Amino acid sequence: MKNPHLPIAVFVLLLCFTSCENLEEKLQEKVNLINEKAGSLDSLMNKELEKINSLDSLVNKELDKVQKLDSMLNREIQKVSSVDSLFNSTGSKIDSMVQDKVERIKQIGN
């Protein structure tokens, strides 16, 4: 006795296999698309990291220049302080000499 539902069951199984193959192809296409997008994103991130590294290097170079300039300014400030001290010392000596001369003139005048 032949089962009347057998051809229908075979048809349903064939339909399922065909649908599964179509789903597998679509799934593979989606996975490939995701991989392509991930690769593009990775490449973009690498480019941005290169820009950041370049900027970091530039900032470090400029920071070195600022530190050298700061060191030069400190040396010049020390020189100015030394000259200022010399002027103050010389000014004090001149004031003292003038004061002595004024005292002598007063003594002679009296």
Automatic annotation (TrEMBL):
Which superkingdom? Bacteria
State the name under which the record lists this protein.
Uncharacterized protein
Organism (species): Algoriphagus hitonicola
